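G.,

No rush on this.
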Amino acid sequence: MKAVLFSFTRRGARLSISVQSYLKLCGWQVRALTGKKFISLDSKLEEIEPDLVSCTGQAFSEAELLVFIGASGIAVRSIAPYIKSKTTDPAVLVIDEKGQYVIPLLSGHIGGANQMSRKLAGYLHGQPVITTATDVNHLFAVDEWAARNHMVISSMREAKAFSAGLLDGGPVGVYSDFPVEGALPEGLEMQPSGPLGMAVTLSQDCYPFAETVVLRPRIIHLGIGCRKDTPEEAISRLVLRELRRLRISLNLVADIATIDIKKQETGLLHFARNNAIPIHFYSAEQLNAAPGLGFASSRFVQKTTGTDNVCERAAVLASRGGRLLLHKTVRDGVTLAIACEEFCVNFEMME
């Protein structure tokens, strides 16, 4: 996770050093940019160059979090040319130079700006200034909950209608193909159908409400093996064919898993990068320890890699012992297995 901090005064620059330290403790990679005359305050500070708008554009494309320490108008003018969509824009916050107020400007829910504003305000002993309607009314925010739980939202229009229904007094319905644990938030009721609601499912055909916002969790894991120098096209053909057959969208894939001797396999790496899918590598010993029985076994694969099966074992490991939806399938030098991790709906796990 990458964050970029911008400051414009001496006091703001000092505050940015403190915020940088806090974010680093939270696991962020953080750059702190400031005006030329303030970079001597600390070796961690970098100069804003060639200009603020250019630096903002670069940060907008590379980082998940932008924090402006100064006037909100500076932040608004800086980010304006780069705003595209609430589903893809990074979180943008403004903090006054005394750290009294932390204001989420952009991507409050999906980007996590509201949540981050609360955390930073707590750290600074300041006040988060949150204006989104569901938050100020202490109601469930479907887009924020979906983002925190790594779900794909079917339609932002339907998400808006869902939130509007809650704000109008509800109740709104909830349908799930997965187990539901814990209490439901205020205004939500488990319903098989109705005029308005949300559905948590992997299905492409599940719309139980007249107006349904569908939330699909990213819980699909691809286990892939391949011959040396297998082209990206061969990997893509097999993966897309089998996902279509299972009626699962590519954007529900959480990761790709394979054996560590494939760390330099160009076609596989390109497929992962071009589809923005993380890739994990396991040793033969880790693959051999994968839980479960009945993996397809190959003496040739055992001799060349140290494990009798790469794709099935990798998919099961990546899914933390999940269920195989597709057993070992071979085409054009590529082996593929697809696993689905166990999942339950829990509205109480909001942080």
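When you get to it, here's the other one too:
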Amino acid sequence: MVTSIRAGSKNSRALLTYLCAIVIGSLTGAQAADWPEFGGPNRNAISSETGLLKEWPEGGPQLLWSAEGIGAGFSSAVIANGTVYVTGQVGEQEALTAFDLAGKQKWQVPYGGVSDKWPKDARSTPTVEGDSVYVISGAGVVACLDAASGLAKWSVEARNEFGGKPGNWTTAECPLLVDDKVIYTPAGDQTTVVALNKATGKTVWTSAPVNDASAYVSPICIERGGKQQIIAVTAKWILGVDAADGKILWKVEYGKLANAEKANGINCCSPVYHDGKVYVTAGYDHGSVQLQLSEDGTEAKVVWEDQTLDCHHGGVVLLDGYLYGANWINNGTGNWICLDWNTGQVKYDKS
């Protein structure tokens, strides 16, 4: 429903136009659902919308509006409560811009420093809940803004505060909200995953370190054994963290699995969870793996590994027992892949 955009050029403005034509067009129905965070309301990239077009009309979808000045970025736009929110690099700051559904800019406010490494473009998609918008900057600033006005409610230099160790492309994580907490993955040798109070920004808990760099993965929250746990991915590890207190329940060294000699820590795709099983994939010929969690959610073991669906960006979708996504051939090319969820068998591999 939404697409990643690089928002600093003529082409990027065309992409924002494309997004607005599709997403806002679908929201003109009376009961259209919001898309308030990366991957949608269930963080699984599946929309509940019906009546979508099977193919574009001749000449493409109708242009509703376009906008400029949002800054450069790789993030996705989100929609909540009749407002479109999108992040971008404006000067040496990242800024959040809000539009109404007619394309009128409501406000634009800075919220944190840009990445200290090239490219500096904004990376993180905002998360909207109630009257608040949560963002993470490329420099590891976690912030909460008022959804109506853009005024800052709180801001934490989280990477610095928790001694975070980013990967080469720094921070590209999208905020995960779990009950009264905002989840962030600084990694490093002090901690791995931290929880901040979503109302105040104060630290709720910090997990133990796994002594690794962070990846570029937006974590998910699942329930197993009667407990909520956060599934996070760092440069080398997949781990489950108790959402209540930050205890690491299990960890699996992904860097030693699925064509391990190609592992490089450039993990960008959110995990997929279903019925006690976790799926993780990465690009550059480092393949994918499915894990089975124990009934109480404290152990994980490998079910199968795959070297065909090495998804670089954007993630994969699980639907009716099949995984769908694009693999990595090079940075500009990939094939459409379908895997059987239960076995990992390749159902098709098409260019």
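The first helix runs from residue 10 to 26. The two ends are 22 Å apart (CA to CA).

Enjoy the weekend,
O.
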